[in-house]
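User: Please go through the entry that follows and flag anything odd:
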Amino acid sequence: MLKRVKVLRFLRNEVVLITGGSSGIGKELALEAARRGAIVVVTSRNQEKLDQVARQCLLLSGRPAFAYVMDATSPDQIDEVLDKIQHQVGGIDVLVNSAGLGEFSPAAGQSYKTMKTMTDVNLLALMYISRCVARRMMDQGYGAIINMGSACGKIPTPNSAAYSATKAGVIQFDNVLRMEVADYGVQVLTVNPGPVSTPFFTKADANGNYRSHLPKWLFIAPDELARRVWNNVGYKTREINVPGYVAYLGWAYQVIPGLGDWAIKKFFDFQQNKNEL
């Protein structure tokens, strides 16, 4: 497998598809891929923002860049856009599933609609797009699938139950997909960042209760995360856990979950108020 995906290490002239590419981590991944000479394709539901990112990619790479409006929760739109990319751009060499959303609030107070939306976008859409693109990569004999997990998928934190569940699902989905496609020359890379300095928290944590417990030094710059991701494509890397403590704390929680619960609740100064529900 490694011999076939080595070609992706430099990204030059490789076709890179990034969902959720109009803002946040997806946008930074698109710009960094363009700096490395990739032919970037971005998708999201916002045409205006997509066009802006595509123009920036064109200027950075000197190569064509493409933007397609796509609702990641619609399998029909996914199929349609993937077919357009195949015919208008070419085979996809690297897929990045970066589209995602969250809402940080107590699970007992969340609506079914909120839970379903997070599951549909963060997990189900990611699985379906990965499945569709994996088939094409298996036929062409190489490729890389990069899926955005989260530190929340390894380390539980108060007020993130549904979101954490979707990200834990991403991690386990990738663990199985990785085995299934490895013999076809396809790398599966799971990215599990801690908090990233993007507009994500503006919507996910509207009242600021979650973010207020996180020191500023804990936040990761999105451009630095993008460089870390692209520096690991084409290698044997299975996961990127940023900061490095994510992997160790995740392991420690599995070994001593009782102590982990106590420490996490202490860190977040967590005391559930029934009035919040």
